[in-house]
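Complex 311.
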Amino acid sequence: VHHAAAVGKGKGVLNDNKSINTDSYSGGYYLRDITKPMYSQNGGAIETYTAKNKMVSPGTLLTDSDNTWVDPAAVDAHVYAGKVYDYYYTKLGRNSFDDEGGTLKSTVHYRENYGNAGWTGTQMVYGDGDGSDKYAYLSGALDVVGHEITHGVTERTADLVYEGQSGALNESWSDVFGNLIENKSDPEWLCGEDIITPNIPGDALRSMSDPNKYGDPDHMRDYVDTTEDHGGVHTNSGIPNKAFYNFVTTSGVTRDNAAKVWYRALSQYLTSNSKFIDARNATIQAATDLFGEDSKEVTAVTNAWSNVGVG
Ligand SMILES: O=C(O)[C@H](CCc1ccccc1)CC1(C(=O)N[C@@H](Cc2c[nH]c3ccccc23)C(=O)O)CCCC1
Ligand SMILES: [Zn+2]
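Predicted structure with zinc ion bound:
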């Protein structure tokens, strides 16, 4: 089938106008972005599907006859996946979640009344919210899309076991890159703020600057021993999240350099059963590799972990 890149338009979840990279064919347009380096290298693309509220993935590749797209959940899942691809490629030299230009597939309208999102091991899935006004379409937040795709990156690198401390590190690395990619100037480094209670401003799922605000610990002394949620992975992530926040807000440490340290730690030093102390050592080693043992980055990352009671 002849493929040609096209640019469509549509509105996102927050009713914002977006231009959309699509793929034209004889009958219309696919929600497929074929403009990325991965396409010319190995046919990799960004593709967005609908599950039609069933529990299926990927489901049906979305098409449109006139390249004007009217499904805001799909528009944002698609455009935001493209932004996440661009970030990893240009800032960190990683070619998609698998570093082999693997196609990024997103499925929206996953399940009924699903107020969550997830990484299935090969792709992203997004629910529509839980039927109340607690959630907007989950793909409507760039930090959520970045969070989910980073689960794919983690799985192909450190492969941190999704349980206990390694699971909390897995969660934290996703919150970190979700926020780095979203790149808001908000002082609180919030998670999911764009899709939680869309009618109430200022709330979020988690805060990296003040984890306690949402009941999560910000120091090792408050680590939560629980069997809930794979050993509290979305709660105890507050401790490494606060460590990263400390690091990235240290004067002289740039977001891009903090990202390089965190990515090098994930891809070169962390392993599946790493604990918080191993993450401290991995990020110190990564900062040493990148900036030297006497650098301000090494001092900052060491202090960042000490401040949360690790090391
Ligand atoms: O990727 C993840 O870590 C979350 C999905 C975790 C998951 C793992 C295994 C099977 C199913 C789901 C999804 C997100 C999350 O943090 N979910 C939290 C909070 C949450 C959202 N919706 C919920 C509904 C019920 C309970 C908790 C939640 C969680 O699953 O804990 C990430 C960014 C926003 C949504
Ligand atoms: Zn997660």
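The two ends are 57 Å apart (CA to CA).
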